[in-house]
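step: validate -> pass
step: tokenize input -> pass
step: predict -> running
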Amino acid sequence: MNIYEKLKIQQKNFTNTTNQIIASEILSHAMKGIYLKQKELANKAFVSESTITKFSKNLEFSGYKELIYNLKNQEKMSKINNVGGTETLFKEIDEWIRSKKNFINNLALNIIKEKNVYIYSSYQLRIASNFIYELLLEGDITPILLETQYIYMKKIKKKENAVNIFLFAGLDTDSLVDQIDFELKSKFDSEKTFLITSTFSEEKLKKYNFKTIKLDINYNSSSFLIRNIAIQMLFMEVLNAMTMKKTF
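step: predict -> pass
step: emit ->
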């Protein structure tokens, strides 16, 4: 049962008027693309903020923030699944991948040559980073996945001439920048370092002159779901390019 279904059940809950009012306020505003803060919702429903928390926990969420997070994600998935939505999404991602052909071929050549790959990921792109890790294993490559929450300001013992891949987007990117600055004492080879970043986050790493592509997909490129999907599809093309280059 998704979040909308849970809220609609509460909206029709005539045995609990308070829950009915809270659910109605959440749904009516969500339909307009408005997600009320907990205090705003409490005022509109004429209840305390603790009542909102209790309501959220009754729906099996840790609190109101998690409820709203799930509601927003459900809305994003609903838009993607609308008639024609999926087709449009994958068409836009395909066009984005086609425009990155040089990046894909260059990355594929370097991975084949060096065999060792270090994947650095910001928290938002962890789904894509785990996918890349599994994908490269299929290609007989030795990848090492480094998520910033576990390696922050730690010296990483790395093999020489390895390929570095940075997945860089979201609000937690400062810790990844700090890690790069820390590791630059031992130097990254810019010719073997590949950066995939949001337009907003690009400025933070521009000074390093890494080989860079932006997550500038026309179809709502700010969505973390679409960013992760796009990167996974991009690396399917990287694996295809690696297979072709090994064949010839």
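step: describe -> Residues 169 and 201 are 6 Å apart (CA to CA).
step: cleanup -> pass
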